Amino acid sequence: MTKKLLIITLLFVCMQAHATDFLVANLNEFETALSKSKAGDVIVWKDGKYEDIKINFKENGNAEKPIILKAQTAGRVSFSGSSQILLSGNYLQVEGFLFEGKCTLEDKEHVISFAIGSKEAHHSKISNCAIINYTHAESTGKTNYYVNLVGTYNEVEHCYFLGKTNKGPTLVVEYKQEKEYVPGSDVAPSAHHHIHHNYFGYRTFSENGGEQIRVGTSTTSFSHGFNIIEYNYFEDERIETEVVSNKSWDNIYRFNTFIGNDGGMVIRHGQKCFVYGNYINGKAGRKESAGLRVINPNNTFFNNYVENLEGSDKDMKSPITVMSGLENSALNEYYPADNAIVAYNTIVNSVGAAIKIGVGNTNKGKPLVAPKNVLLVGNTVVNTVGKHIEPIVIEDPTSTYTLTDNFYTNGATSEKGFSQIKTKDLVLKDGFYFGKQFTNKSVIDAINQRLVIHQIKLSDKEIMVFDVSKIVSKKDVGVSWMKK
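^ that's the sequence the OP posted. Answer follows.
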């Protein structure tokens, strides 16, 4: 052994020697271990089935040495009843737990929360955890989240969520509102959370409030989130029109897979968000699936692949819907999708008009405000089906927009900027259609200019050509210990 290697080995052994593993099997043992723990220590919860275990994991690790709470064997520590895991502090990690079975949580108690009271968690993570059918019935009227994601710079990764049936989204990002917070202000701290490689399965709720992910609220919808939601897999979400509901600024939704859901990917509130590289396949047999919907100014949708939508002849469920706002809109209502960029998306085999501009919600009884300066470039519409097969419909004629180098294979439109082509002229590779794209440098530059705030610069190809290799499947997401 060389002298250098010997020194490195000794350093590693010394570092390990300073870390302690605590084995616990009840709350008293956990609290004793936590009181003795320091940065780098690991608290191991013994395998078994536990009921009514409320864990307050409050401590501080550091970037190099987080404090870890983990199952002895991933998936073999099961919690039920009123069990919760609550985190507060810095650099904490929770790994390998299962919540399943009878749920007796009180209203607004969440299964996993990155806060204990007003004390939040930061730079902390949950991974390899599953929450399955751990839910109240809708009829109870109780609201719970599977995950309440607050604080800053936290992470939810490789988790498995299934079977939620009561009110409240599966996972919620909430922004801190200090005393005397003014609704609609932009002073809430940016969250910078990372949500990735998670599985979101069957979920149903008959009214509004059944999303899988909601990022923000209308009250904090002017907060600058800087959250990244990527490489997640969503399937079989029913009734709710929004699988993902964005309600804050500066978030990125990319490379997610949506299969057989009734809802869509929706920028409900907030500005300067990006939706790109996502794959949506609406085939489910329920005739309800939706696509991409943009509300509020300055949002960017590009290079998404949407196919087999079954519900897109319904209001606000088109493959791409660019919405009007409401006059004197309240925070929880609608602002027009001004300055939207909708570029290089592909829409295949979907019911109804492929793209709608100026769709309005008239239920509020307010006059509509049409979107202005909408830019649609390089979108391709292939084999639309059903009674209404127009590639584009302008629902509000006072909308202003620019159409350039868009293509469609069937139906008809008088809109300049949409050219008809033959399906046989497209390349069909591994079940995906690719057409010739005309590089519009000004649009590519505009997208990259918007991405500057995230320190991202994409190549022409990354903006224009859908990358099938980015599509995640079930085997790519969720927990390691469950058969996919």
